[in-house]
Write the structure tokens for this entry.
Amino acid sequence: MLRCLLPVVFLTACATSPEGRKQLLAPAPLQGFSAVYSEFDMHLQLVTATNAPSCQEAVCAADRAFDQRILALGRRLADAAFREHADLHLRFPRFEFVVADKADPGAASSAGGTVVVYRGLRGLDLDDAALAFVLAREMSHVIAGHHDENVTTSILVAVAAQLLFPVLNIGTLFAGSAATTAAASTAATSTLATTAVASAASFAGSRALRASDRPQQVREAEAIAMKLLAAAGWNGRAVSDQLEALRPALPEEPSWTEELRESARHIASLMQGPVLPENPGLGDSLGQAGPALPFGLPPPIVIKPY
């Protein structure tokens, strides 16, 4: 049994998040796979989300204006992120901001620096400070390595399931009766059953573990986001006030909106403590240029591929 589990140990490496939390991440050779897996996971979220209806005239103009806001806010935050976290350029060359034509409010991201906001977010009529928080929180999931952490969890659960289920001979519980089937057929059925059960268990197990980690990851992303916003020139209390000004909750809200409201409550409680330091070199105007970065970076972009 120990020999079977030994390879699992070599699939992980210890790391520390920017907020000091211990993490299990895939080692360097698997980082490329981590980026691809998280990108696939993000696309899966987009595929399952409801598409927004086609825009017409004035609505299209409003959509384009929203895209430009995302571009301006994203560029400002990306500049601050690469200043505050110098190791980011070793992981990906830039943040890429995408507006997806999805009906409900929402946001997603991947380990490769892609940040997606759903078109439905425009319907919340967020102030620039609140919209910047939404972007910063997704960027902070990337900065903190949460996607890499989720991929590692999925890998560990999958490997453990594929190794342990055959050893425990669980597949025999789902195989046919030996009295009514030939031995070879029973063995084949048992193998297929074990594989199917192991795959289902690994998928369900990884989703359950990731769901249990989600609240802690969100709290960590909120803390990093507020520091990122301060570094980009936003006032923390102004951000908190704008988040608290969200429209009243509807009877049936998407889970993402409920999570944003929870973030608003948490940020409001954080603002009861010491004021986060502000960067005196940056103003609140989007048009004001920030300090130059120590190395050249391509600008972030807004595209609409979904």
About this structure: The chain is about 55% helix and 10% strand. Confidence is low (pLDDT under 50) at residues 1-10, 173-181, 280-295.
